[in-house]
User: Fold this.
Amino acid sequence: MSDRTLRLGTRRSRLAMAQSGQVAEAVSRVTGRPVELVEITTYGDTSREHLAQIGGTGVFVTALRDALLRGEVDFAVHSLKDLPTAQPEDLVLAAVPEREDPRDVIVARDALKFTDLPRGARIGTGSPRRMAQLNAYARGHGLDIETVPIRGNVDTRIRYVHDGELDAVVLAAAGLSRIGRIDEVTDFLSIDTVLPAPGQGALAIECAADHADLIAALGELDDPFTRAAVTAERSLLAALEAGCSAPVGALADLLADGQIVKEMRLRGVVGTTDGLRTVQLSTTGPVPETYDQATALGRELAAEMLAQGAAGLMGERAQ
Assistant:
């Protein structure tokens, strides 16, 4: 490999720049080459429509991938949960670094926890998945909440709470951690309350499939357990034929006996946004050692969920 500066394609948001900056430092360490950030505006950044309306899938990704294919950048960093499940043949996920905390969190007024919010509390989120699970939990536990669709970056969303327009907003723990605002969290939502989006908390480092040297170098940042987990989660999403804006939650985690990792558990949920109907199941199997084993785990659970009526809960399924 030459010693020229590597160009990293990134979205312009504060969160994207922060996580891309962290990846740039890591890539510079393993390659010995300087890395510069190339800011790219995506359709998802400029559209003011709600993600569910514009079909979430790929809206934050397409412009970055186009820049890769045109050779304007050498590699790109994505929030993995934004990636469509179908991988283009001419691009490769060279690395999936170790995942941050995958949980969703609440930032609420008066430092309130989710279960302490007042009756009629207005909770903002742009995610049908979060709406479905929060409303389902509220119905099952006698809480009275209203989920309110919102858009905007992290600063904008938290400002809704500070300005009194909303009682709380739901965000990803990983995002707040990466921009140094994790201290503003008033409640970490248990996985048993809200399953995260497939791939949440993980990053994807993507480059052109014909750059073998760069793929090998970026591969130094890959975490095998994180890759296996997110592969299983995304396989579930793909088998449900759902896009990344669909009300689908999934999380694969490792089950250990003492210090020895024994199995991988995959949990999945799909529900109507009003919380009236949900299908939530889990499956457990050996820790996947290959891509095919990880995808099989996801397909197996998806088949069970579809048999219990999951397809009818997702609205319009992705094509």
About this structure: The chain has ten helices and 13 strands. Confidence is low (pLDDT under 50) at residues 50-57. The longest strand covers residues 260-271. Residues 14-31 form the longest helix (18 residues).
